[in-house]
């Protein structure tokens, strides 16, 4: 039941991860913006059934202990995160696995499930979006000053990154999302949703201050058979 930590080289970067459990069903946990396995999935690493599951929590490139490199946001950064995650699990010799993705990790999970269907067993996403609206961008910009964030959210991120890296990375993400919002219908991965064939469960917090429930409803409507 102990949690091991290690690094493995994938796509030219060294990705840090934590792993626990010895179940036959492998589950990859993908954190949100600026998140790491430890900050976003501490309870899952501790409490998920370790007889049923082998649980793997990834720090995406530029986050957590997967620095260097510093995080950047090219136009295809969500696709890059999806590709990193898939090659990472294959490097660990998992032939098939389920994905649990939160927020930005949920978007990467949607893309991965659409593009690598033979690898994905089941999919769970929460706080994920397939597009960005101008209203979303106004919300993200409204909290651009990270020093004013809720202490519970801010403190672990500030401890991990220092205020400068944390603020700069969040700002760069907002700038990239603002460019997505200029596309017709703010598309991130809408066209991929019909390609997702695995059993899919979409969760949404109705008090989520950043992500409107309309995003969850859109994803549900466009992934056939999703719940």
Q: What report would you give on this structure?
A:
With 227 residues, the protein is of the alpha/beta class. It has a single domain (4-130, 188-222), classed as Alpha/Beta hydrolase fold, catalytic domain (Rossmann fold, 3-Layer(aba) Sandwich). The chain is built from 7 helices and 7 strands, in the order βββαβαβαβαααβα. The chain has a 7-stranded mixed sheet, with helices on both faces. A hairpin with a 2-residue loop joins β1 (4-10) and β2 (13-20). α2 (77-91) packs across α3 (104-115) and α5 crosses α6. It is globular, with a radius of gyration of 17 Å.
In brief:
Helix content is 38%, strand content 19%. The chain contains seven helices and seven strands, in the order βββαβαβαβαααβα. It has helices at residues 37-47, 77-91, 104-115, 134-142, 151-161, 163-180, 213-222; strands at residues 4-10, 13-20, 25-30, 53-58, 97-102, 120-126, 200-203.
**Mean of residue pLDDT?**
96
Domain count: 1
Strand content: 15-25%
CA-CA gap between termini: 31 Å
Order of helices and strands: EEEHEHEHEHHHEH
Protein name: BPHL hydrolase
GO molecular function: serine hydrolase activity
Domain AB hydrolase-1: 26-140
InterPro entries: AB_hydrolase_1, AB_hydrolase_fold
């Amino acid at each position: 039941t102990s949690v091991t930590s290690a690094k493995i080289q994938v796509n030219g970067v060294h990705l840090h991860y934590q792993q626990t459990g010895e179940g036959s069903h492998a589950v990859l946990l993908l954190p949100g913006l600026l998140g790491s396995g430890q900050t976003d999935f501490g309870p899952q690493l501790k409490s998920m059934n370790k007889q049923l599951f082998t649980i793997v929590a990834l720090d995406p490139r530029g986050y957590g202990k997967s620095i260097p490199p510093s995080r950047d946001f090219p136009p295809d950064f969500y696709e890059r995160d999806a590709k990193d995650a898939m090659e990472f699990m294959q490097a660990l010799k998992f032939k098939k696995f389920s994905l649990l993705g939160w927020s930005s990790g949920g978007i990467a999970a949607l893309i991965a499930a659409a593009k690598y269907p033979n690898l994905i067993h089941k999919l769970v996403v929460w706080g994920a979006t397939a597009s960005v609206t101008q209203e979303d961008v106004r919300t993200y910009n409204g909290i651009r000053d990270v020093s004013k964030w809720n202490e519970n959210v801010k403190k672990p991120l500030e401890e991990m990154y220092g205020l400068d890296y944390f603020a700069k990375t969040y700002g760069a993400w907002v700038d990239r999302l603002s460019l997505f919002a200029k596309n017709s219908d703010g598309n991130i991965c809408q066209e991929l949703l019909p390609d997702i064939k695995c059993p899919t469960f979409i969760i949404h917090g109705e008090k989520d201050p950043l992500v409107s429930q309309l995003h969850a409803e859109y994803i549900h409507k466009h992934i056939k058979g999703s719940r």
